[in-house]
Design goal:
heterotrimer; A mainly alpha; B mainly alpha; C alpha/beta; B: mainly alpha; C: alpha/beta; globular
Chain lengths: 331, 314, 325
């Protein structure tokens, strides 16, 4: 009875979805269902792999501080279920996962993993969403500008900035922005999320490399689109430059949307660094800390959460693709 | 291209000859002059502790340095860190670690990737399916999280045994090499596949050449440019990965020095009272410059070695 | 009142990599209102460049008009930047291109693409523009236009796409339609229907038609006048019947002979012209056609022959004027 939700979620749902996918007449709905079916399976795989990794490594969470008395240790391990066989522990963890319960955190002993995750999620989500907003808000206009001024000084400046931003890792870029903006000119607060303006710089640092990538995609996409024959049709029909440029931008958005899935995953990774630098109480800090503290339950919860997030975001980007480009059939 | 190669070669020589340079000891803690700002006032100092070097190449170079410069050495031109250690010397020592790690890990990842891709491409059929699905699965995992996980756990496993940087580096090296070979494998496989079906390979086969000699005479020399191009692209990627992990405290750990560690210490020392900008700016500049140079070299080599691919992607 | 389209001594060159290549070397064209003119020639003869330069559609640079003038409905479009042609694009002269596969923006619905052009040329609401799009689609002979406006270009066949392209060219109610090889990329049966459509539009709208093609069959079906182009110059011009029945320039004669004849005996096979058209950067001296001409005189290599009127309508740029044949 304990395993019922897990069976429902990880066995029944994928099977039902896959059967529906096979039977559905529209290719689009079929692939939608297939992707949905693979989500729990992917999460399960990643969970199993991480679990195996954790248990392949000797050394438990209670090794660190001072040596514990044998009975204390046994009591602790019994409390957290660490004394049972690995497979049983895994089954237990999976059925917990189906109920969104990852058990108590081993390091933050008074909180469950779910509590820790829920507490950290808003800050991280805000940061990530803003970073993606920067990505689009900066990447698209600058890319378009560069494409329309191809070969002139504006284009060369923007291209140089793109190359620079693409080469710099987040933690280098952050330093280069942080010192002048925060410490010399004191325009923005240094850390935390107390003021609304505090989130500006972290999200900018997180989003800029992706904005550069988007700008590059838009620049080459627009330039390539403008080579298309349809451009002559529009110009000959009397449409102004601006309308033609927007039509070209529309075409280049296809590659941008295809890239957004990657960008979202990259933002998740980058937030680890940015949250550390700016002391933002989000999820990223917990991850490194939990892996270092051998806080197995928290680490597993983080891995599962991030996998699911990355999967869903990638999926969302793929779903948007046919909206931007009608020629793309979902496959 | 020429400029790029010259600059990279210059960096490499500087890094190799670090023991020869009159630098301060990167580990000498000197609290009275902690967080000293960069200055050009005092250029040369005398009588400060000199670094000790060991190793077959470094030790003779250090002796040579004694002979050349005596006890003279550069003052902390780029400032000092929170423990009063000379940042200039630390950047050079960090460069040795970071670049060596990136170089070795990229060669390792190149070997794994090239082998994997060549086998998949040569054998084709089910072997190919199996190998490439495997690569897909590994590529689909949220790798960076698995890496953090693996590094942390491996470190825990190694426990508190021999804590020298090279051993931590070895862990880091294995991990970075293990996760960064997939693009190489894909590129090499595609190239081998297309070569395998090329007319001149058919001609060689008809002429009675053995599989091994076809592999040696035709496939490897023709796939080499692809492998080389993917290698030049992977070096900066691995450099970033290394410094990223070191930055998070999962890679090289203090007292070891790498550029990621330096940056981390820079951020840690940064407070509103002591805006020690140099501790971030100079390591960041060094890392950025090397990444830009390597990126430019990779791009150039890609265009030169793979003209047909470069034309496809503007 | 002047002619609808007047081109006088148009010279155009492309500047690439420091070299300038003259592609048009003095083109003269006249098209009256409601008239129809076919511009004929091998590929590379400059007919497509001529058509595009009329609406200044070529990228400038590399293209540059060095001499001559273009007047469309009395407006000069050859002077100044390319945007001076905006005054006539769509509203006075519409244009249809060769390849219907790529002529429509792939990510815009048919209706939206048409409505955008309609709104560019008349002040009206989107609703009115959509209504007008439906009328246009009906006019170019699309069945069920209500359904078509919701479709994407890739869902239409080549013939339908070309009809939509024609509808877009007509959305601004132009007096002149420039059709650049409109049927080359289409199947034979679809070709005939599109040509039929062009003739019907001419009759209904009083539209003038400038038809660029290399297909003499198309010329005979759709045009009244024709001009033969060779190496950036017009070598013969006159009524279609006269030029086809009695070509005066050796090049036109060769084109005529290369046509398979249905009335001829089987052994009277089409004769193909030897050699290749010259590259614009390596033009022969004198008459550009003389290396391939079977009647060439020594003088042909020295002097560029001028277009001389043989009678009121028919002119030819060859000193032989058909005597050699």
């Amino acid at each position: 009875m304990e395993h019922l939700p897990a069976v429902l979620l990880f066995v029944l749902t994928p099977v039902v979805l896959l059967v529906c996918a096979r039977r559905s007449c529209s290719a689009r709905r079929g692939s939608l269902l297939r992707r949905a079916a693979w989500l729990p399976l992917t999460v399960l795989c990643v969970h199993a792999l991480s679990f195996a990794l954790v248990h392949a490594v000797p050394g438990g969470p209670f090794d660190d501080d001072r040596p514990l008395a044998a009975e204390t240790r046994a009591a602790l391990e019994a409390r957290f279920g660490l004394d049972r066989p690995a497979f049983e522990q895994w089954l237990h963890a999976v059925s917990g996962m189906a109920r969104a319960e990852f058990g108590p955190s081993l390091a933050h002993r008074d909180h469950s993993v779910t509590e820790v995750l829920v507490a950290g999620a808003p800050a991280s989500l805000l940061l990530g969403a803003l970073a993606l907003a920067w990505t689009l808000a900066l990447g698209i206009p600058f890319g378009l500008w560069a494409a329309l001024r191809r070969g002139r000084s504006a284009d060369l400046t923007i291209s140089a900035c793109i190359a620079l931003l693409l080469a710099l890792p987040t933690f280098v870029l952050t330093g280069l922005l942080l010192i002048p903006l925060v410490f010399w000119w004191k325009l923005l607060p240094a850390a935390g999320l107390d003021q609304p303006s505090a989130v500006l710089l972290p999200s900018l640092c997180l989003g800029l490399p992706f904005a550069a990538q988007v700008a590059r995609l838009v620049r080459s996409g627009v330039a390539e689109a403008l080579q298309g024959e349809w451009r002559r049709t529009l110009v000959a029909a009397g449409l102004p430059e601006r309308a033609v440029a927007f039509a070209a931008l529309r075409l280049s958005l296809v590659s941008v949307v295809a890239f957004l899935g990657n960008a979202a995953a990259g933002v998740l990774t980058g937030s680890l660094v940015v949250e550390q630098i700016f002391a933002i109480p989000g999820l990223g800090a917990h991850f490194v800390e939990s892996a270092l503290n051998r806080d197995f339950t928290l680490a597993l919860g983080m891995v599962v959460l991030y996998t699911a997030l990355a999967y869903v975001l990638n999926w969302a980007a793929d779903l948007m693709l046919p909206v931007v480009d009608p020629r793309v059939e979902l496959s | 291209m020429k400029l790029c190669v010259t600059l990279i070669a210059g960096c490499a020589v500087l890094v190799l000859l670090t023991p020869l340079l009159p630098l301060a000891d990167s580990t000498a803690v000197h609290l009275p002059r902690a967080l000293q700002t960069p200055t050009l006032d005092i250029f040369i100092e005398h009588g400060e502790p000199r670094p000790t070097w060991s190793g077959p190449v470094a030790a003779p170079l250090a002796t040579l340095r004694e002979a050349l410069f005596g006890d003279a050495q550069f003052a902390p031109l780029l400032g000092t860190d929170a423990l009063g250690r000379c940042l200039l010397a630390r950047i050079f020592v960090g460069a040795r670690v970071s670049l060596l790690l990136a170089l070795v890990a990229s060669v390792a990842s190149l070997s794994i990737g090239a082998l994997w891709g060549a086998v998949a491409g040569m054998r084709g059929g089910r072997t190919d399916q199996l190998l490439m699905r495997g690569a897909d699965v590994i590529g689909a995992l949220p790798l960076i999280f698995m890496v953090i996980f693996a590094v942390a756990l491996l470190r825990a496993w190694r426990g508190a045994h021999t804590e020298t940087w090279l051993d931590q580096g070895a862990v880091l090296l294995c991990i970075t090499a293990a996760v960064s070979w997939i693009p190489t494998a894909r590129m090499v496989r595609a190239e081998v596949m297309s070569l395998r079906n090329a007319t001149f390979v058919d001609a060689a086969r008809i002429a009675g050449c053995s599989n091994a000699s076809i592999l040696r005479r035709h496939l490897l020399p023709n796939a080499a440019p692809v492998a080389l191009a993917s290698w030049t692209i992977s070096v900066p990627r691995i450099l970033v990965l290394e410094s990223f992990l070191s930055f998070l405290g999962l890679g090289v750990e203090a007292p070891g020095v790498s550029w990621g560690v330096l940056l981390r210490q820079g951020y840690d020392a940064l407070t509103a009272v002591h805006v020690s900008w140099w501790l971030i700016l100079f390591p960041a500049t060094a890392l950025a410059a090397v990444l830009l140079l390597l990126g430019a070299l990779g791009e150039n080599l890609r265009i030169r070695l793979l003209p047909q691919q470069a034309r496809g992607t503007p | 009142m002047s002619a609808l389209l007047e081109v006088r001594g148009l010279r155009l060159e492309f500047n690439t990599a420091g070299r300038s290549i003259e592609v048009l070397r003095g083109v003269d064209l006249t098209l009256e209102r409601g008239g129809s003119l076919a511009l004929v020639g091998e590929s590379g003869s400059g007919k497509s460049v001529t058509a595009q330069s009329l609406l200044r559609l070529l990228d400038e640079p590399p293209a540059r008009i060095t001499a001559g003038s273009i007047h469309i409905a009395g407006r000069c479009v050859s002077e100044g930047p390319a945007c001076v042609a905006n005054a006539v694009r769509g509203s006075v002269a519409g244009m249809v291109f060769q390849d219907p596969q790529s002529a429509l923006h792939p990510c815009t619905r048919i209706g939206a693409a048409l409505a955008a052009v309609v709104r560019q040329h008349r002040h009206c609401t989107w609703r009115e523009a959509e209504q007008r799009s439906l009328e246009l689609l009906m006019e170019v002979g699309l069945d069920a236009p209500q359904r078509r406006v919701e479709q994407w270009p890739h869902q239409l066949s080549g013939g339908l796409r070309q009809r939509v392209a024609i509808a877009m060219a007509l959305a601004g109610d132009p007096q002149l339609l420039i059709a650049d090889e409109p049927t080359t990329a289409l199947d034979a049966t679809v070709q005939a229907r599109v040509l039929g459509l062009l003739s019907r539009l001419r009759a209904q709208r009083g539209l003038a038609l400038l038809l660029i093609t290399h297909d003499l069959g198309v010329v005979a079906a759709a045009a009244d006048e024709m001009a033969v182009m060779y190496a950036g110059r017009i070598v013969e011009q006159g009524p279609v019947r006269e030029v086809l029945a009695q070509p005066l320039h050796p090049y036109s004669q060769a084109l005529r002979q290369a046509l398979p004849r249905t009335d001829a005996l089987p052994r009277c096979a089409p004769v193909s012209l030897r050699g290749l058209p010259p590259l614009p950067e390596h033009l022969p001296t004198g008459c550009a056609f003389h290396p391939r001409c079977s009647h060439a005189l020594p003088a042909c290599a020295l002097e560029v022959p001028a277009l001389v009127a043989r009678n009121a309508q028919h002119s030819v740029a060859c000193p032989l004027e058909g005597q050699g044949a």
